[in-house]
Each structure stands twice: as structure tokens, then as C-alpha cells.
Amino acid sequence: PGEAAPLLAAGGILSLGNSRLAWVPVYGYSLAGVFRVYGLRAGMGSDAARNGGTMSQVCGLRAVFFDFGGVLAEEGFRQALIDIAGEAGRDPAEIVPTAYEMAWTTRFVVGGCDEAGFWRAFRKATGITADDAHLTEVVLSRFVPRPYMFALVDAVRDLGLKTAILSDQTEWLARLDAKHDVFSHFDQVFNSYHHGTSKREAAFFELALGAMDVTAGESLFIDDAAHNTELAARLGFKTLLYRDRESFFAELADLCPPLGAR
């Protein structure tokens, strides 16, 4: 979605020993070059795997799990709450934690209520009187997809790895998919809202591993919340904590050079 952004540093060439991979604008590097350098076979992609072929491994990985808000897209919920507080002349330092608490106490995040129930609880707790439609639109508009992350997802799939979203989200994720064509980039989507469990619990990770038919040890989990990556690491995942674009791709390159950029 949106305009493609390069993954590599200025100059468009990634040096790996005596090999050089040419930059192509969509993915940031030549996948054909990656296949040559790392001895991978073209045709080992995820389409072949989904049709019964052998799933390839890259850097010991068979699957990559991505969080949505804060990784694939800007963290829209938090930014929306800051903006909603500003519209109402309220202190975001008060409104933001209150709203997060409401999301969990109403069990909105795990499908315990719909958006109407969440916004009722939010209005009661904060005194903010805006209607559901306005509040929801503010939230949805702040989840801005990051083109460079979707380029990475597509490159991961083209290398033959499985990809999935593993996110503590709500019914809003499907609306964001309808607007931005999110789901087509992934083999599966695990949304806490539809599973009755969240990344606060090992069960959600185990559910996703089983559905993807991979083990934690051959999976990478990317999230912007340290408590989520810490739990995933305890379960045996390789993990990356997303802080910003530059440090993320540097750390990804250290973990698995075909997927990152130095």
C-alpha cells in the first residue's frame, strides 16, 4: 500500500562480502541476487509451500510474525487518543492510560465487546462526549501503513518464508484491511479480537505457531512492545523490538542479512 520506499541506505547497493545486490525500488534489493548469494532456489516461495511444496529456511527461519500498530503501521490508537484529548481540551497523560485500561477491562481487545461498548465505557470514564463515528474515524485515520515494512513482508514471502500478523487488535483491523489491502500480504492473520486471547498470554503465541505449522525456534516475532517480545523470547522465538526504522533494519541485518540492510 502507498508509495514504495527503499530498504537500503543511499546509493542503492548492499555489500555482502564480495557480493553486491542491486537495488530495485519496491523491495530495496534484488531478490534474484539474494537467491544467488545465499544459495536459495527460485520457486521456493510461499506459493509453492502453500501448495504442498517444501518450505524454505533462511537464517534458520521458516516464519516471520509481525505486530500491526507500531510495526506495520504507525501506532494509531495511541496517537488518536492524544488527538481526541486535545480536541476535548483534556490532558493526554490522563486520557491515554484511561483508554488503554478501558480497552482491557471491557475486554474489547479480546472480543468481549464491540466498539460501541468500548466507546460507552470510554465516555463514562473520561467525560468526553464525542460520538462513536467520530472517535472511530480518528482512530482509523491514525493507523498509517509503513510502505517499507510491507515491502519487507513481500520480500520475506518471496524468499519462501511464511508471514503472519500477530496483533492485539479489534474489529478495526478488518476495516483497515478494507482501506489499505493489508491481509493480502500475509499467509495468516491472528487478531486477538477473534481469538479471545492476547499477546499477554502464551496461548496466543502457541495458537499462531500451531496454525502456521512452525516452531518458535524457527520463527521471528517483531513487535514494538518490550513485554511482548520478552514473552515471545521466553517461548523460544527469535525476536526484534521495533524502535525506529534505522535501528530495526540494522538489527534485522545482524540477525538475518538477506532480510535487512547494513
TrEMBL record:
<dbReference type="Pfam" id="PF00702">
    <property type="entry name" value="Hydrolase"/>
</dbReference>
<protein>
    <submittedName>
        <fullName>Putative HAD superfamily hydrolase</fullName>
    </submittedName>
</protein>
<dbReference type="InterPro" id="IPR023214">
    <property type="entry name" value="HAD_sf"/>
</dbReference>
<dbReference type="InterPro" id="IPR006439">
    <property type="entry name" value="HAD-SF_hydro_IA"/>
</dbReference>
<keyword id="KW-0378">Hydrolase</keyword>
<dbReference type="GO" id="GO:0016787">
    <property type="term" value="F:hydrolase activity"/>
</dbReference>
<dbReference type="InterPro" id="IPR036412">
    <property type="entry name" value="HAD-like_sf"/>
</dbReference>
